[in-house]
Amino acid sequence: MRDFSSFFLMSTEDVRRYAVEVLHRFAPDEETECREIGDGNINYVFQVRSLLDGHSVIVKQADRLLRSSGRPLDLYRNKIEARILQLEGELAPGYVPEVYYYDEAMAATSMEDVSSCRNLRKELMENRVYSHLSEGISSFLADTLLPTTDLVLDAEEKKQRVRFFTNPELCKITEDLVLTEPYYDYKGRNIITAGNEAFVRTFLYEDEALLAAVASLRLNFMNNAQALLHGDLHSGSIFINEQELKVLDPEFAFYGPMGYDIGNVIGNLFFAWANKAFTCPEQETVINALAQSIAEIWDKTGEKLALRYDELVTFPLYRTPAFRKAWLDSVMADSAGYAGTEIIRRTVGDSKVMELNSVTDLTLKLPMERALIKLGIALIKQRKSFRRGRDLTDLFRLILA
Length: 401
Ligand SMILES: Nc1ncnc2c1ncn2[C@@H]1O[C@H](COP(=O)(O)OP(=O)(O)OP(=O)(O)O)[C@@H](O)[C@H]1O
Ligand SMILES: [Mg+2]
Known about the structure:
Helices cover about 50% and strands about 10% of the residues. By secondary structure, the protein is an alpha+beta fold.
């Protein structure tokens, strides 16, 4: 039998043994079952569960090759993921799975099983909108982002973290798929629903004012090492139940603009809204609850960032009211902009979401996609003009009218 001292891709049987011999989470003679529960494109996620008392552990192993396409991808992402989960666990206790063990040789992170929570994207598809979502995710955002900036962190420590969390291969995926190809399809990877090609050409590929705004957001993503980001905070990375909210899968983490995380959360919630507006407009209560959630996330994140700022930022120059306001305003402007780029990339790029894929009736799908693209464009171009969450939701209501 192989030992676990050097990398190999584990089978369920290997992981069962690993959970005993390396993790010591189960007694050697304890009956356990192991399943691969991953549904993503990138890694392998295993759950090992005791048949005696049901206690369990998650082992997430990265491979040198992507699970879906077989393309190579740097294993270092797993080290980044384990480390940021630990940091986030300290900054926002309870909002991420507890890391039990990071195994560099095996590129495997062992962590708390949060199966009592469910994938937010799927919950919203099933019309389950949680009223505590805005409270939880805004706390997570404010508590994990602001304390990792130069406004709070020691400058040397910050630079060491920037170095540790430099994540070029995963950032390149975002730079291409989110911040380039939807506007300039140089790899020919966009997937545009037949019937919307001319719309995409006119409004995404040929609008110079939009291209200039996206260029600015792209360079900001690449150069503004503002805070330690999750980097892929879409609604499928958020798990929720009546009591709890957990954020998973931060392997795209790096030092970047905070608005990228905030915008990702907000952008993805608009897919749930768009899906319902076109496929089940009679679900008014659910749609209104979703709109309220989006507006609250914007408002509460802004408020909590301001509160955290006053608590944590002590350097006199940064406490100057005019600087503070300009800084907070620029974070929220970025958030609107990146909500826009996320909405557009999921609609025309190759990483679709189930809210779009599940709609096959073209008489619904074409106008739904156009509404989302219009929303994305307005969020990008008008990103500096949104003052409160209602401004964003009013904008979408106007587009849908
Ligand atoms: N700690 C956990 N507790 C319970 N389930 C988990 C946990 N971590 C991951 N999962 C399950 O495994 C799935 C895949 O996990 P994750 O998104 O981390 O993998 P990934 O391969 O990085 O995915 P992606 O391709 O989206 O990047 C999750 O959607 C979730 O259902
Ligand atoms: Mg992932």
